Amino acid sequence: MIRQIITLLTLLVVISSCKAQVNNIKQNKTLERTTEKFDSWTYYRQRHGSEYVFEDYLRGKVRQFGGDNGSEFVEYARKDNELYGSYKEFYNKTKTLKKIGRYYYNKFSIGIWKLYNEDGYLIETIDKDIPYKNYPWEKVERFITEELKLNLFDKDVEVNRYIDEEVNLPIWYITWRTDSTEVFSIKINALTGKVISKEINEVRE
Asked: So what's the pLDDT on residue 147?
């Protein structure tokens, strides 16, 4: 009788262990994973000075730097005819992808950014647009092109966004120049979409 009880308990332990392993396998399969790696061999062979710059058919102008003294590898890429570019960061030791996201003209991060561990598994997802969801980029773009009649590809037109920490308020900030003497700026409350300030400043050479 005692031997039967021991056998039964052993069987239950084995079954529980198998179920746990199956659950872990299923859980690992559901985790997002990346296998992308940084091509450090080409980077070190081709870079001039501290960076490697090249043209890619799909991504446009690519700029890579980093890797020295244990620092992470960084890559920016953007086509000349596009407002948005991609940002990637790679671990120095494993060369695996660490962080990926999109940016607007190097001014601010947009959309979904993802962070991976050194094994390639997704560990964090951040939506950079959440503070500005009430007055998103699409409305800002329409305001600039239709109401202000400005060209976003004009180097004298700049758009940025930030959180005013004093009042915890998300702000869109637009500046542009129509000539060499004056700079115009507009601040928009990203919670309400209302313009909260307009300024004209003289340019001092």
From this structure: 96
Q: pTM of the prediction?
A: 0.78
Adjacent-strand bridge partners of 171: 162, 189
Greater confidence (69 vs 203) lies with 69
* CA 33 – CA 179 distance, rounded (Å): 50
The domain boundary, picked from 97, 128, 159, lies at: 128
Residues 47 and 112 in one domain: yes
Residues 45 and 118 in one domain: yes
Q: Is the pLDDT of residue 16 over 80?
A: no
Does residue 29 carry a pLDDT above 50?
no
Domain containing 85 equals 40-128
Average pLDDT, the chain: 88
Give tens-digit pLDDT for 101-151: 999 986 899 999 999 999 999 999 999 999 999 999 999 999 999 999 999
